[in-house]
Backbone:
């Protein structure tokens, strides 16, 4: 019986340590959408930009327009932040694009895309996130 208790205790401690390691790997301050696209836009998709931030794809049913914002986890000194949005497939140029040195986020950028699939991305200091051919409809 003592061996069973020792094994259970060892497994419990190991599981707790692994859970702690997983929590520690998550950024302390993850970017959140703050309504940057304006009234009537809701988040329909998002993607991590490595550990640097998040790119948010939003949509307004009233206008049929998509909007993209690429946000850092925490604001700081200006760094290169880019946001891109296009009807799928993107081709060689983003239809809507913004890129410059910003403290917090790039965008909002907009594109009329009702009933169409979109490609969208965010990039922070060379690290990119986003998706291709999504949110068709």
Residues:
């Amino acid at each position: 019986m003592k061996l069973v208790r020792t094994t259970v205790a060892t497994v419990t401690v190991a599981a707790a340590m692994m859970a702690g390691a997983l929590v520690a790997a998550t950024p302390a301050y993850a970017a959140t959408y703050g309504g940057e696209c304006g009234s009537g836009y809701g988040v329909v998709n998002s993607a991590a930009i490595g550990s640097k931030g998040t790119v948010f794809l939003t949509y307004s049913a009233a206008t049929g327009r998509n909007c993209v914002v690429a946000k850092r986890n925490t604001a700081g000194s200006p760094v290169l932040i880019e946001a891109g949005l296009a009807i799928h497939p993107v081709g060689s140029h983003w239809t809507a694009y913004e890129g410059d040195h910003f403290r917090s986020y790039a965008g909002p950028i907009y594109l009329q895309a009702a009933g169409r699939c979109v490609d969208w991305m965010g990039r922070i200091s060379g690290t990119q996130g986003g998706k291709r051919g999504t949110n068709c409809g």
